[in-house]
Sequence to fold (207 residues):
Amino acid sequence: MKLICSILFITFLIGCNSQSFEGKITYRQSCESRNPDITSEQLTEFMGTTYEYYIKGNKYATYVNGTLEAKSLYKADENTIYRYFIQQDSLAVENAGQANPVLQSIELVEGTENILSFECQKIFLKTSIGEITYYYNEALGINKEYFINHKYGNWDAYTKMTGALPLKYVMVFPEFTATATAIAVEEMDLPDSFFDEIIPKDKISKN
Fold:
């Protein structure tokens, strides 16, 4: 279970383009279990079926439902990820400057896949705990310079190679496979106050 929680943290994640995407991407998530002690349905319920990702410039926030219902906030000025578990009313803090897991290799993959009318290219990452394939389109561009120090989840390596947000990812680990596919992309103007209010301020102030 501890390993699953660590992997859940990574899934929150999630050249410079002339225009950066600002808004929200909603993903549908599912899991396929290879552990005889937990079914695919139980694992999906635990991990959550819906994942929302909000981004503006060098900051992002997320929300995931499920048993471990949680919100997260990346503060670029601190290079820190705050993860608030709603039902437990608890906060976890991650140093985004620490590489976790260890990246072993990264490469572009031939072939494309159409997701929400976006023709997506693929990139493959092999890490110390599993393999991840991201599907992305440059129309959802971001400034990779904003995330050069965001080593947690190997986000720096991914953004350096793609400069874009993923529309799908498939994470393969020894005990299960997790897949998330975008079901909606919404461009919107997100005020700074939106990110300030994602997590209760009293929780962050205590850290």
